[in-house]
Structures are given as C-alpha cells and as structure tokens.
Amino acid sequence: MSLMGIDVGTTGCKVVCFSMTGEPLAAAYREHDIQHPEPGWAELDAAVVWRNVQDAIQEVAQAVKDDPIRALAVSSLGEAVVPVTRDRCILGPSILNFDVRGASYVEPLSRFLDDSRLYGINGNTLGNHYGLTKLCWIRDHRPRLYEAADKFLLWSGFIAFMLGAEPAVDYSLANRTLLFDLQQEDWSDTLLAWGGVDRDKLPVVVPSGTAIGHVSPAIAAELGLPPNVVIVAGAHDQCANAVGCGVIEEGLAVYGMGTFLCITPVFCQHIAPSLMIPRGLNTEHHAVPGKYVTFIYNQGGSLVKWYRDTFAREEHRQAQAAGEDVYDHLFAELPEGPSGVMVLPHFTTTGPPDFVSDSVGVIAGLHLETPRGAILKGILEGATFYLRECLEALPETGIRVRGFRATGGGSKSDAWIQLSADILGQPFLRPRVTEAGALGAAIMAGVGCGALDSFTSGVAEMVKLEHHFEPDPRMHAAYAEWYARYRELWPLMRGYLHDLASG
Question: Residue 379's closest CA among 322, 420, 349?
C-alpha cells in the first residue's frame, strides 16, 4: 500500500508516491508558466496545469502499479481560485495573488472593516493578494464568467474535484480567500455580504485530513490508478510543508525554499491583532488540529528562476536535454563570503510587513569584473536579509523560533541552506525528503483514509531528518555588517522606486 501526495505550486506541480515509512517510491514533475496577458496581470491556465497534473499522476501510477495507492491528497498554492461548472468544466484562468486586478476594492473594504475588526474575523491583514478582491473583480468585469461558474475552487480543492471529489476546501486554504471566519471555521456572513459573493459559489469547508470522495472510475482508468482511491482534503502548501518536515509543535518553523521563500512558525493560540497587524502577520489554521501558523515570505525562489532564465537560459536547456539540473552548476559558481552585490528583492509584490505592490528591484555594487555567481549570491542574500528583518520583529508577539526545517526545491542546495543559517544565526535541519509539501499531503491522505492514526504518528512514521547545518560564527558576523547596509537601502530608495514603478 502507498500514499500519493500532489503538490501544485505557482510554477510547477509534483506528484510523489510514498511507502508507509515515508520512502519515495516514484515521483514526477511538470513545470508550467505564469501568463501575463496585460501589464500587472498574472494568471495560470488552469486547463494546462490540470493536464500536467494528470500526466504526472499517470507517470507515477505506472511506476507503482505493483504497490497499490490507497489514498491521495493535494497541497497547493493559496489565494487563487479556478472557476468551474458542476460537471467539472474549467471556465477560465486562475488569477494569482500578485495580480493587480482587484486593487480598487481594498480601500472600500478598509472603510467597512478596519484592520482590527477584519483581523478578528479572518486573521489576515487587508491587501489585494487574497481571493476576495479577485472574485469581486471577476463579478464586476467578467459577469458572464461569474454567473456561469457553479464553484470557485482553491487549487487543492480544484484538483481533488477534477479527480472526482466533492467541491471542498480545507481551513488553511479557505483562510487565503479573506472570506473565512477563523473562530466559526466557516465562511463569514459579514465578509460574504460586503463582497456580494454568493455562498453557494464556494465549496464546503472541512478540516485538513478529511475524506471528501474517491477518484472517479473514468479518471482512474485513464490515469492508471487502482479503483476506489480515497481523496482527502489537503492544505495550503506552507502548512503541508510543515507536516512533511515534522513542524507540528511550537518553537519550530519551516523554511520553505520554493517559488516563495516562506518561514512558517507554529503556535497554539490566537495572538492579539495589535501585535500581529503592525508586523503584517496573519493567523491561519495549521493542517494539524489545534495549531496555527503565520507566514513571513518573499518571492526569492522566483528571483532565482529569473536569474536562471536571464543568465543561463541556454545552459538550462542543455542541462534538461542531458537529464541534469542546471542549478547544480549555477550554485557551484557562488563566491565565498558576502557577495559584494547588494540586492533589494522587490522585483514583484513583497510580503510582510508592507506588501509593497508598486516597487521594483535593485541590484547595486556591480563592476565590469563582477562574475555572474556574485549576482546570484547577492539575490540569495537580499531575499534572506528581507526575512531576517521580519524575524527580528517576532519576539514581542510571543512567537518563538528555535530552529528551522528546510524544504522545497532550493533546500537541495547545501550552499543555500548554509548561507541562510549564517545570515539568520539559527540551526537548520533538512529532512531526507526535501519535497515536504508532497510528503505532508501524503500524510494527510493517510490520516484521512485511516491508514495513519494521527498527524503525530504519521510524522513519527514517515518524516526522517538527516542533515544538520549550524551557523558559522565568523560568517554570521560578516553578514551582520552587510545586513546593516541592506537595511539602509529600502528607506533610501523607497520614494525613487515608487516613482520609477509608476512610470
């Protein structure tokens, strides 16, 4: 018997089957591109991503046909929704969180509910990166699409629905819409009424790890899955990452190294809005019952991909043809010590505390002799400095972090993890399975189908921690000086960059 975890991200999807002891039995990956049909717009072609997920499932199912899959669950990106009909037709693209559409609804919502009242309902600070403002835009600017859609599904629930499940969403992903009542654990009547969003166009809300259906016979036959595979409600990808690397107790935090660099600490009680709001911190249900998480993030992984596509596009193509990973070659070029290149990682909308949407990035300190590896390292340093500044504001909230678990594609790089440990001055552990989102989804699948007794026992059975990274005191001291210079850059450049971004 095996468990399947599906992890759908902003730029790619992974499907992995695991044994009951957490060993990967087979895996497949498909990359997809963000579409930019207009300046400031960003969306995924849901039909393309769904085909990619099917292809990856089929590849994995073929590889493990002698070890039947009992259940599956989906970890996914947050915020974005997919419009579908009840007979599982995809009606349009999925607008991503950093798309500018919906911005005009932020100010009216702020007049209706101030930050403190909104946070008391939903546990989020106001912004245009949630599903609510995008739904309002669709309703007002694409009325035919809005009316035709029977459901708007978050990505985990969308994939589950297309496989045959009932339309559902777990608590953590429901929270990313800005329409969820954190205390009532259901859609908020207050926020639905303000947004003019029809409740019946949203899926039912359930805890992560809840069985929500079976793979349909037709899809199972098409993809090579065994009959009656149980579909279980998954989670927001950062919560799935936490489960997949064993971050289910207070004091630990995930250090997700994917499209987003995301720190996810765990805590057990609601924290006063007056402490969380100024730091841009949300409160979201963990996939694990009785626990909560918050997110500190930026799009550091996207910047690394931008670097790859800008400085090494042909090498990437050649590496793919040869079955190699171009990142192995690129990270081998990183210089020792601080890069000497200062990067402000505001290439796109930032994360907490300010969620700046109208900035642009900066690369400073270039010389004619600057090697490209120094530019890559400067990008990694700048993205990590951004996170360090946010972490330094945590202690007053009562959230403590005593160590990190590194996950995601970037965590395959020893150099990147060590750089992160040196800058943050904290130890890092890397699990044997670095694609923790897929493993976390598989653990949820096991809990939902009854193969695992609980999240605690699932983590004990399936999560293995292998590699330990301690901060180098000498490098930490060197980066402290470089970090102090970084902190001067954004205040110095803020007004100029606002004007530049505004054209």
Answer: 420
Pick from 171-180, 204-213, 430-439: least confident: 430-439
Mean pLDDT on 98-122? 94
| Alpha-carbon gap, residue 398 to 276, rounded angstroms | 10
Residue type for position 258: G
Pick the CATH number of 296-398+472-501 from 3.30.2350.10, 3.30.200.20, 3.30.420.40, 3.30.460.10: 3.30.420.40
Count of residues for the chain? 503
92 closest CA partner among 151, 31, 27, 168: 151
Task: Pick the closest to residue 364 from 345, 390, 350, 336 (CA basis).
Answer: 345
pLDDT tier for residue 57 given thresholds of 50, 70 and 90: very high
Considering only residues 115 and 474, tell me which one the structure prediction assigns the higher pLDDT. 474
Cβ atoms of residues 230 and 70 within 8 Å: yes
Bridge pairing between strands 204-206 and 168-170: parallel
* 3 state SS of 5: strand
**CB-facing half-sphere around the CA of 322: CA atoms within 13 A:** 9
pLDDT in tens, 126-180: 889 899 999 999 999 999 999 999 999 999 999 999 999 999 999 999 999 999 9
Classify the C-alpha dihedral 62-64-69-75 as positive or negative: negative
Residue 498 has a pLDDT of 63
Q: What is the pLDDT of residue 503?
A: 60
Q: Which of 398, 387, 371, 357 is nearest to 297 (CA)?
A: 387
Res 129: pLDDT: 87
pLDDT in tens, 67-76: 999 999 999 9
Distance of alpha carbon 24 from alpha carbon 7, whole angstroms:
14
Could you give the angle at the alpha carbon of 296 between the alpha carbons of 294 and 300, nearest 5°?
145
Longest dimension (CA), the chain: 62
- Residue spans of alpha helices (H) in 258-401: 273-276, 300-311, 313-321, 326-331, 372-391
Q: What is the model's pLDDT at position 286?
A: 97
Residue 32 in this model has a pLDDT that exceeds 90: yes
Q: Measured between alpha carbons, how far is 233 from 210 in angstroms, rounded to an integer? A: 5
Fold of 2-294+432-466: Nucleotidyltransferase; domain 5 (3.30.420)
What separation in angstroms does the CA of 271 have from each of 45, 208, 267, 275, 372? 38, 22, 9, 7, 44
Task: List every span in the chain annotated with CATH 3.30.420.40.
Answer: 2-294+432-466, 296-398+472-501
Q: How many CB atoms lie within 10 A of CB 399?
A: 24
Scanning the structure block, which residue is given the tokens 């149980």? 230
